[in-house]
Design a protein that fits this description.
binds beta-D-glucopyranose, 17 helices, seven-stranded antiparallel β-sheet
Length: about 850
């Protein structure tokens, strides 16, 4: 590459063109690639309600299926959707681990265990890529919590890094993922996007991986260091550190031309791989059935006293709790998906399934959404009063404070508006002259159905005002946008203003936000809800008392899981905890459905007859839940995380970095259930736990070496159903390194997951026998002295188990230095 023009052309390709696309250069076989956020669905470029798409169960829900086939099928569906929308790379899966239950983005993770996350992450990747769309494993590495994600510097030892946090990415590389995203944070002193140890030594040399490595959005910090470390692509565009700056670095002799060339080779390969993407569309009913079954497959039945579930045919049911008709289908990140009108809430679906057997519906406690939606109150756009929603107008404000006529007008039906780099009519944020500002006005007409106080909420990146019938009623906002643009928009301070409204009397409402120029983005959120009546809980308890069964729909709200912010408590809102306690006291046949994607406290679990954990289950939540409650489908899930009795039982709850910016992984490899094992703490519900509806029997445990030599061994059992009902079983295999004294090796896990399989056991007399392959690498340790894996030679126990704490059978074996297994009396 001696031609200077060629250098400019090639260097240009190393940075994105805009938020979602890269540059093209047919001569070097690089197409303009479209990179779009996942992982719960395929987001559009608009990030708003006009971009309806399918919403699949979140990562934790998919992990709970313990089912490769389900996860791969969901991946295929998303790949199809992405291909149909002209997307080249879907930005997922998120292969960080739920190191702490407080992690803001835990819902995207495949739980707390590296083996499970690796196997199921790989299944998702295989599914997506089978449609010719690239997956992008993110965020390499140790972006396991969100608070301070842009700056924190993870201090981690090599063994923990390889055995735990890199392991899911290694599985992704083995599955042939076409792209990876470097995390925002630093690892041992270096930003991931300029970390030669990660981007070159691990990805290229150890894993021999040939995909594209891109930065997280606005996560590139340098030119020479990033290129030299092995970063191929700065995202998003326009270029800041790579692109033209890469050509300049080559000319200055700071970076060899071959480095840029190598990045282009990776991009050309990705271009080639995604060129053949195919988009056959399947019938909507089939699509929904798949999402419906995947959701049911993820629900974890934690307890089921007196087999209260499935509901008996004649039971009357009181539906209680805020999440029955305001469920949380997904998290509140930028990867949020706009849902179509066909989506049914659990309340609607249960009413359809049970008819008059649903005797009451009482929310019992307010939904905790940060900014409640105004849409259920029926706002009408002011410009076109027949239309539901809001009129949004865009103005400029000159230095004297004079507001222009609308420069652009829109009608929208949403409670959140976000603009990157420019706004309609106002133009580029960078071009707003000093002293002047932009102004967005969101207006609607509202005719309340009931008298009373309504709580108006608003938040945003500028100065905000609320006007009722032209009168200023409240002010708020005005936050400077910190460096973490993507995260900060969604969790600024919210202003709440109570307003008295009269039934039948129309009012005009304006939310206004003004802002000055510069910055990369602006956004605002707004909404209102009727003030909460004082007797909400009492009414719920009365309804619960007279029904055969009470089902309490507890959980978090859609905006509870955020980028760049962890949770500060694992508790459900106090009003919900009180409600559950009161309903359990009023009706012993109470089922609690917890709609939360991470570990929440369940201090009431002993008092509830049944507890069902439903995560962020995607758009088919309602129908899937109705089917599981009535027994038409099995609750198929097993816990991919540990649920503790007390917050302090977890290895890590305080997630932020220390004052010097360091985030030290002091627990080493003892994360998740490994910590509970090491500390001898009994969890409330352990990793791998989950009940089904069938009475399944295990027998004839077996373990044998693999005649093909491909695997270390094969382990399994024979299963049968003791009743006429078939069901799902998840057979789990844990490996336990044994020492001569019987003690656990210091600092090492007592046991770790090395295999699992999902079996659908048909009704008797069928007796499927299953074999689970075990790999040498899962009986190996990372040796920091040699920088490589080696089999841990010595005695091992292999446990066939229903969960990490419910062991069916133990085999004693010996693994030698060459990774060969010996069984029998001398092992
Ligand atoms: C997130 C990534 C995401 C990217 C693009 C970032 O803030 O961390 O997961 O893919 O934005 O939307």
């Amino acid at each position: 590459m001696t031609d200077p023009d060629d250098l400019d052309l090639l260097a240009r390709l190393t940075a994105g063109a805009d938020m979602q696309t890269t540059h093209r250069d047919p001569e070097h076989h690089v197409r303009a690639l479209r990179l779009v956020d996942g992982p719960m669905g395929v987001t559009g470029g608009l990030l708003d309600e006009r971009d309806v798409s399918l919403l699949a169960p979140s990562g934790t829900a998919l992990a709970a299926t313990f089912n490769r086939a389900t996860v791969e099928a969901v991946g295929e569906l998303l790949g199809e959707q992405a291909a149909a929308r002209g997307v080249d790379v879907l930005l997922g899966p998120n292969l960080n681990l739920s190191r702490s239950p407080a992690g803001g983005r835990n819902f995207e993770h495949f739980g707390e265990d590296p083996y499970l996350a690796g196997v199921l992450g790989a299944a998702w990747i295989t599914g997506v890529q089978s449609k010719g769309v690239g997956a992008c494993a993110k965020h390499l590495v140790c972006n396991d919590t969100e608070t301070g994600r842009h700056g924190y510097d993870v201090q981690i030892d090599e063994q923990t890094l390889h055995e735990v946090y890199l392991a899911p990415f290694a599985a992704a590389a083995r599955a042939g993922v076409w792209a990876m995203m470097a995390a925002y944070n630093k690892v041992n002193g270096q930003h991931c996007a300029e970390h030669p140890g990660l981007l070159t030594r691990v990805l290229r040399e150890q894993w021999d991986w040939d995909g594209v490595v891109m930065s997280d959005w606005f996560g590139t910090h340098s030119t020479t260091a990033s290129l030299t470390a092995g970063l191929d692509l700065e995202m998003p565009g326009p270029a800041r550190h790579l692109g033209p700056a890469a050509a300049a670095a080559v000319r200055a002799g700071d970076v060899p031309a071959s480095t840029v060339q190598r990045a282009i080779e990776h991009l050309a390969l990705l271009s080639h791989r995604t060129a053949g993407r195919t988009a056959p569309t399947r019938p909507p009913a089939e699509t929904r059935r798949l999402l419906h079954e995947a959701a049911a497959d993820s629900f974890v039945l934690l307890k089921n006293d007196h087999t209260i579930l499935p509901l008996a045919g004649d039971t009357s049911v009181a539906v209680i709790g805020p999440n029955a008709d305001e469920p949380a289908y997904q998290g509140g990140t930028f990867a949020r998906i706009a849902l179509g009108p066909e989506v049914r809430t659990p309340l609607t679906a249960l009413r359809e399934a049970l008819g008059p057997r649903v005797t009451a519906h009482e929310p019992g406690a307010p939904s905790e959404s940060r900014v409640p939606s105004l849409l259920p109150l029926g706002p009408r756009a002011t410009d076109s009063p027949g239309d539901p929603g809001f009129t949004v107008t865009f103005h400029r404000v000159d230095t004297d404070g004079a507001v222009s006529e609308p420069l652009a007008t829109d009608t929208r039906a949403t409670g959140i508006l976000v603009w990157f780099t420019e706004l309609p009519g106002i133009g580029a944020l960078a071009d707003l002259p000093p002293g002047s500002s932009g102004l967005v006005r969101v207006s609607c007409l509202l005719t309340p159905e009931t008298d009373g106080t309504y709580d108006f909420h608003f938040a945003g990146t500028g100065d905000l005002r609320l006007l009722i019938d032209g009168q200023e009623t409240g002010r708020g906002g005005s936050r400077a946008l910190p460096a973490d643009v993507m995260g900060a928009l969604l969790h600024g301070d919210v202003t709440r203003i109570p307003v008295s409204l009269t039934a039948g009397r129309q009012v005009r409402i304006d939310f206004e936000m003004s802002f000055t120029g510069g910055g990369r983005a602006q956004g605002m959120q707004f909404g209102a809800r009727a003030a909460v009546p004082a007797d909400l809980a009492e009414r719920a308890v009365r309804a619960a008392r007279v029904a055969d069964t009470a089902i309490v729909f507890a959980g978090v709200s859609q905006d509870s899981s955020l980028e760049s912010q962890d949770r500060d408590s694992l508790a459900l809102p106090a009003a919900q905890t009180d409600l559950i306690e009161q309903v359990c006291a009023a009706n012993p046949s109470t089922v609690v459905v917890v709609n939360a994607p991470f570990a929440v406290d369940m201090p009431w679990a002993e008092r509830a007859a049944a507890v069902l954990l439903t995560w962020f289950p995607g758009q088919e939540y309602g129908p899937a839940l109705a089917d599981v409650l009535t027994g038409a489908l099995e609750p198929g899930g097993r816990l991919p995380i540990t649920l503790a009795r007390a917050d302090t039982d977890h290895a890590v709850t305080a997630t932020g970095p220390s004052d010097d910016g360091r985030l030290t992984y002091t627990e080493g490899v003892l994360t998740g259930y490994r910590h509970f094992d090491a500390q001898r703490i009994t969890p409330r519900f352990c990793f791998g736990h989950g009940l089904g509806y069938a009475n399944l029997r295990w027998r004839a445990a077996h373990l044998h070496t693999d005649p093909t030599g491909r695997y270390l061994a094969l382990a399994g059992v024979t299963l049968s159903s003791g009743t006429g009902r078939g069901g799902k079983e998840v057979v789990q295999v844990y490996a336990v390194p044994l020492t001569p004294t019987g003690a656990t090796e210091p600092g090492r896990p007592e046991q770790h997951l090395v295999g699992f399989t999902t079996v659908h056991v048909p009704p008797a007399p069928a007796q499927p026998r299953i074999d689970i392959p075990l790999h040498v690498r899962d009986f190996s340790v990372w040796d920091p002295r040699t920088g490589s894996w080696r089999p841990r030679a010595g005695r091992w126990e292999i446990r066939l188990a229903r969960s990490s704490r419910d062991v069916f059978h133990r085999f004693r074996v010996y693994v030698d230095e060459d990774g060969k297994l010996r069984t029998g009396p001398n092992s």
